[in-house]
Structure formats: structure tokens, C-alpha cells
Amino acid sequence: MIVRFETWGAWVKLESTAAIVALDREGVRALGLDGGDAWSHSAGVSSPLEVHLAVTARCGAGCKGCYLDARPDGIEPSRDVIERRLDALGDAGVFTVAFGGGEPTTRDDLDVLAAAAIARGMTPVLTTSGLGLTDARVEKLRAFAQVNVSYDGSGETYSRVRGFDGSGAAERAIERLAAAGVPVGVNVVLTRDSFGKLAETVTRARSLGAREAQLLRYKPAGRAASLDYFVRRLSPDQARALAPTLRALTHALCSDGDFHVRIDCALVPLLSADDALASDPALLVRFGVMGCEAASGLAAVTADGVVAPCSFARATDLAGTDLARDYAVDPELARWRTYVDAPAEPCASCSLRPVCKGGCKVVASFVSGALGPDPECPRVIDFRKGRAA
Amino acid sequence: MSPRSDCDGDVAHHPGDGTSATPPDGDSSRSSEHVLRVRLGHGANCSSIGSVVDTLFVTATVGAAVFAAVVAALAKEPVRVSSATRAPPEPKNRRERSP
Q1: What is the CB neighbour count within 10 angstroms for residue A61?
Q2: For A280-327, what is each residue's pLDDT tens digit?
Q3: Closest by alpha carbon to B81, among A44, A326, A10?
Q4: What is the distance between the alpha carbons of residues B83 and B3, in angstroms, rounded to a whole number?
Q5: Residue B70: which residues within 8 A CB-CB, separation 6 or more?
Q6: φ, ψ for residue A185, nearest 5 deg
Q7: A339 CB near a chain B CB, below 8 Å?
Q8: How would you label A209-243 residue by residue, b for 16+ Cβ within 10 Å and e otherwise?
Q9: I need a labelling partner for A63 at 20 to 30 A (CA). Which of A72, A315, B7, B38 fits?
Q10: Chain B contact present for A178, CB below 8 A
Q11: Contact call for A216 and B82, based on CB within 8 A
């Protein structure tokens, strides 16, 4: 295990089982360790646990909602440049580095880069569209702890989300990865069109060999930052139906423990519509559910090498190679954290605030023009309706 | 004890070798109270951080088994301290953060 001291105890990355654990100080002492200087501070900004590293901005898929606005002629940093960025992430104590882009499998050195991440104490994972993922390219992915294939549904469902039907390629990629023994999951973007097909999509992914489905909220960034966003995002009724949908998926697909369902940070505020979950935030805390960790437990490094609060947010001026030194003091990153520390109502009094952390700031910024309560959170909608009445 | 790194070759601690307070009888329930959070799996999404949620809907018994497995792993695995461990900068007006 790798132990990273924090002011409250330590984060621990286990190696025999895929898990990251937060221990209090007593729990750390039980390992025979003491936090020393890290524990003498009552406060402090920690480094990210997870960093999303764009290893290319190149992609020919042309998905209409691409958050990066990736293009076939996008920049692609050299291996040396990426390794210097990995040096910085390792120095910062980052546990997980998620390779993305662009389409990362356009690179032919992913095996080397994955090994470089592991050598620096990090767990490498990767997201791909699956387009062009040949057996030879699969061989380059063996060192990754998991590879997720973007898969929003079959045929028409996929096409409605991305603007073309790449579902066949995605399905073949899932099968190839699974057959090669590479742990594979799927990323499913939830839009107004894909939500109703979710059970079918996830069941299909599981049958192809996926061991996990990560559900992603559609976000207004890159090519998706347009008026089109408002007709593609989940409807208010769909947002309220998320928790019951997750409950049903769990009972249908996860009972044997071989398949897991994840939600991304931006979906966490939608859980506020579920009375059982909203009344038991400690349950979400204990199982490590994370809402908006942008500029805190999560950061992104863009293809041109600068740090962003998350992959969807505008980049700061902080160079990725300076992340270990300046993450706590960069003013733009600090602005995001400051909002989370003192959010406006109804977030300030929300039971899920310790987990949700005020909802998706990218959505709030796009819809409302500033960091603020997530305007698509059911609780925020109810609060504003009540105030208007 | 000051935090130190063994990522670059220092000797690692091994729970149970005399430096660990893990109960020698393997009674993991005594140490699970110090586990604040468990994040399962390797989220492999490159654009937003993900969390396993099927554990929220399972029985308490299954949930307890997850924590027991984690505690067992904590008792067995050799310990390395991240080289990043150090006193963090303290910006003004910071409040204490929890995990």
C-alpha cells in the first residue's frame, strides 16, 4: 500500500485490492506510522488523488458533444514531455492518472507511458472510443489497471449522443479488451435520449465483457457548450429518476459482485431527490462517493500542459510540471475551493453537501454565469421554485 | 516519527512486524472504526471522477464485508509512504478539510 499523509490522517492506496481508503490518525498509527509535520498543521490543501492527463488532443471521431473539441490535427506532446508531467504528478502523490485526450490510442507509446506512471507510484487507467482498437493496440494497453470504452448505447442511441454510430466499434473494443484479459468498463453519457435505454445499454456492455459501467452527466464544455446543451441534458424528471434507476441497475446486475455501477461527480447532486440517500449522507461518505472534487481531489492536465480544476473547466496558468509545488496556492484553483467551503443556499444547508460539494461548477458556470448552486440539482430547483412562489 | 519516503529505496514497514498496531488475532472489527472512507475500483474515466454506487444499495452485511476486506488488506500489505508527504502550504483563511 502507499500511504499519503493528510491533516486528518492519510489516504491509502491498496495494491492487493483495487481500493483507496481514508484512515483517521489512529488508523494510520495502527500501521506503525505517524504523520509528523503533515499532522502538525490544522489545515491545508492536499494534492489531487486523481489527475486526468490528456496525452493528445488528436481525435478523428468528431463526437458532437466532445468536451475538448478534439480534432484530427490536435497537438500531441512527445513522450518526454508526458514523462515530465508524470514526474510532477508522482511528486504530488497522485494515486490515479487517467489517460485521455483526444483519442489516446492514437499514440504508439502507451505501454511505455503506463509503465512510467506505475514506476512513479501511480495507477494508470485509460478512456478510449474504441475506434481503431486493433489487437496490436490492445497489447499496448495491458499495463493499465482498467480501460473504459465510451459506449452510450447501441445503434441509434449511440448515434444520438455522438452524432455518428460508433457503437459497433465500441462493442468490438469491449470484447477485444475482455478477451485479452484487460479489465474493461464502459462510460455511458446520460442525455435525454440515452437515459431511457440505460438498462439495456449497461446489460449489453456487461454481456460483452465489461465489468463496470460509469455513468456520466452530459456537460456543457467544448463542442457541447452551446444552446444544444439545453435540449440534450437530462430532463428534470430524468434527473429525479436517477437514484431509483441506480437501485434497479444494482439489483439487476450487481448482485454477484462481479459488476459495478459508478456515477461521476456531476451526477451526485441528482441523488438529493432520493429521500433514503439524502437522509443518510454518512453512507455515501463511507463508500467514498465524491461529488465535485475539481481543484481539490481531482485535477486535469491539458494536452498543452496546464492544470485545470477538472477536464471540463477552463485551464489555469499553472503548468502541470509545477503541480506539486503550486497546487495549493494557484489563485484560480483556490477560487474553486473557496466556493466549496462556503456555498450559497440551498447547498449550504444540504445534507449531501459533504459529499456533493455544491454540484457541478461547469454546469453552474455555463447556465448561470458563475460558480453557484447546480441549477439542475432537484433540491436547487425546488428551492428556487419555493422562493419564487 | 517523521514522515518519510521509501518510494526511492527506503525500508518499508510491514504491519504485524512489531511496528503495526493491527490486532494480532486478526480481529478486523477493532480497526475498521478508523476507516473513514473506502473508494472501490479504478475509475477509468478521463473526464470526471467516478464513485462506485451499487454499494449504497446492498445489504449492511455486504457493506460490512467490503470494509472487512479492506481492513484485512491493510493488515497484510507492506507499507510505503508517498514521497509527496510533507507539510502542505497553508493559504490564509483555510478551513480544515476532511477526506
Answers
A1: 20
A2: 999 999 999 999 999 999 999 999 999 999 999 999 999 999 999 999
A3: A10
A4: 9
A5: A14, A17, A19, A21, B32, B35, B38
A6: -130, 180
A7: no
A8: bbbbbbbbbbbbbbbbbeeebeebbbeeebbbbbb
A9: A315
A10: no
A11: no
Nearest-CA distance from B16 to chain A in Å? 8
Q: What single-letter amino acid sits at A231?
A: V
Q: What is the dihedral of CA A169, A170, A175, A176, to 10 degrees?
A: 60
Q: What is the ipTM of this complex?
A: 0.94
Distance CA(A260)–CA(A237), nearest Å, equals: 25
What is the Cα–Cα distance from A233 to A238, expressed in whole angstroms? 10
pLDDT, tens digit, 9 for 90 and up, residues A106-127: 999 999 999 999 999 999 999 9
B81–A12 CB contact, under 8 Å: no
Chain A residues touching B95 at Cβ < 8 A: 43, 341
Judge whether A126 is closer than 8 Å to chain B, CB to CB: yes
Q: Which amino acid is at A316?
A: T
Edge-first strand listing for the sheet containing A9-13: B35-40, A19-24, A9-13, A2-6, B80-81
